[in-house]
Amino acid sequence: MSAIAKLLLALDRSAAGLRQRAVQVDDHRVLYAEGGRGETILLLHGFGAEGSSWNRMAKFLTRRYHVIAPDLPGWGSSTRLTSASYAYPVQVERVHRFVQEMKLEHFHLVGHSMGGGIAARYAAKYPEDVITLALVAAHGIMEPQESGLRRAVARGENWLLVSSPQDFQRLMDHLFVERPYAPRVVVKYLERQAISKCEQNRRIFDSLQLNDPPLAALLPKIKAATLVLWGEKDELIDVSAVEIFKTGINRAQVLILPDTGHMPLVDHGRQCAEAYLAFLGNQMKSREKVSGVPSRPAQAAS
After folding, report:
1. What is the rounded CA–CA span in Å between residue 199 and residue 79?
2. Is the CATH number 3.40.50.1820 carried by domain 2-147+211-291?
């Protein structure tokens, strides 16, 4: 069954115009999906996920851009070391080393949830690397309005930690307003993966709550034009967080999708891609206006 699920996931990746590759980044072997040509977009996934979570959005991006979606160190099929920390400051440096190994000089950076927390911190620390930034339901800010997940954790119920099939179903119910279709064999495969990694994920979750330095204090250091995209009905990170990102980042634009939960990149992949491509197009026009020279997306190796 796992073989069938992996085959279906590979076909989904291929349909998005992506091929899987691997690179050694210090003590981690990092798997990543890559495809398309043009300026580079680096996609960072969320907690408990992997690079394939971007497939439904990436298939619209690879037509015009060079897309890279890694399984972040510690997640997916990349190396996870029991003795290693996967807290935000350490992961930011691992992403920077990945960028160096991939010989990326300037790129568009996108992060979802945990990946958004990494992306925001990366853009604040390495502003010269980042052409534009997009944050999709980014973690790391204390929302003015408590999310359902925050209230559940306070009761001792963490939806992100899956120790049984029932826990997995509960998580799916809270991730989506309406679940998108996925083959049952793939759903069961993801369920088993989540259960097998529950205790390790618990340690990582705890490390991600250490907000030092606070992300809110780092936001003014972000120089890139930024798209802040959120689902109106996000139960994991409340949509009220957008106001803090909008206030803290000098060049931030906000887009809130109605009737959408925590995973707009999955259940509204086309809409997310279209909004993001429109944002990139507007930023390209602004760059051309300032420089007086039409932008020519760099050609990336296939």
Report:
1. 16
2. yes
At 245-260, the pLDDT tens digits run: 999 999 999 999 999 9
When pLDDT is cut at 50, 70 and 90, the band that residue 2 belongs to is confident
User: Domain residues of the chain, as ranges?
Assistant: 2-147+211-291
User: Are 32 and 69 contacting, i.e. CB atoms less than 8 angstroms apart?
Assistant: yes
pTM: 0.94
Q: What angle do CA 143, 119, 290 make, to 5 degrees?
A: 110
Burial call 211-243: b when 16+ CB within 10 Å, e when fewer: beeebbebbeebebbbbbbbbebbbbbbbebbe
Place of tokens 């997310």: 272
**In the block, residue with structure tokens 């210090």:** 26
Q: Please, how many CA atoms are within 13 Å of residue 45, restricted to the half-sphere of its CB?
A: 26
